[in-house]
Amino acid sequence: MVYAGKVEGDAVTLGVSGRLLEGNLIMWDRESNSLWSQLTGEALHGDRAGEHLELVPSVFVDFGTWKKLHPQTHVLDLPPIERSAWHFTTDHMKAGANERSQPLGIGARAWGDAVIVSIKRLQRDGVVQTEIAGTPVAFVWAPAAAAALVYDRRLEDRVLDLSLRDGILVAQQGQRFDPLSGRAAEGEKVQRLKRFSYLPSVISAWEEFFPGGRVLK
User: Fold this and answer.
1) CATH superfamily ID and name for 104-216
2) How many degrees, rounded to 5, is the angle at CA 68 between CA 4 and CA 163?
3) pTM for the structure as a whole
4) How far apart are CA 31 and CA 158, in angstroms?
5) What is the pLDDT averaged over residues 148-162?
6) Pairing mode, strands 176-177 and 168-171
7) Nearest CA to 59 among 149, 194, 164?
8) How much is the pLDDT for 38?
9) In the chain, where are the structural domains located?
10) Which residues contact 186 (CB under 8 A, 6 or more apart)?
11) Exposed/middle/buried for residue 119 (C-beta within 10 Å: 0-12, 13-18, 19+)
12) Cα separation, 120 vs 213, whole angstroms
């Protein structure tokens, strides 16, 4: 997952607090020393409590795949991780159970609505279509890169009905797209599908944080 580095115009430099909440990472920011939920993007404690980070579209792939998509990419060399005082506190946070053996999913949320699709189902079906807060979306598996993505199915005032065929994302209306980039296949008039921000998560943690959300297994 990727969050914007600003909240209401102010820079937010995040680090790892060393704490967990319901088995999910808790971050801290250097500027205010507030604690943030990795899964919801909400500040849970400190001066920024109640504020939210902006989730931006991203994709988790190996570096070779990324270089093929973006050959001019620069590699960011990060300094050593800076620890905060939160590493040694026990207040406000509680550690969750070991989640290593729990099933994983790809979750998306907007305007109070939340949906998570299990990786197992996504690998099996290739495409899972649903709506999030009224927006038609498609959870897509890109088999060549073993990557999951979420796309807005609206294109040129139409809602596409998508499926995965021989590694290509195909619309019932006839258009074809690369499942990893969302770009239209060669010869298509349209350009690309719009990405929808998503969060990889252990399904049990997602259910804890979004109890009213839908779980598609």
Assistant:
1) Rieske [2Fe-2S] iron-sulphur domain (2.102.10.10)
2) 80
3) 0.80
4) 44
5) 93
6) antiparallel
7) 149
8) 92
9) 2-61+75-88, 104-216
10) none
11) middle
12) 19
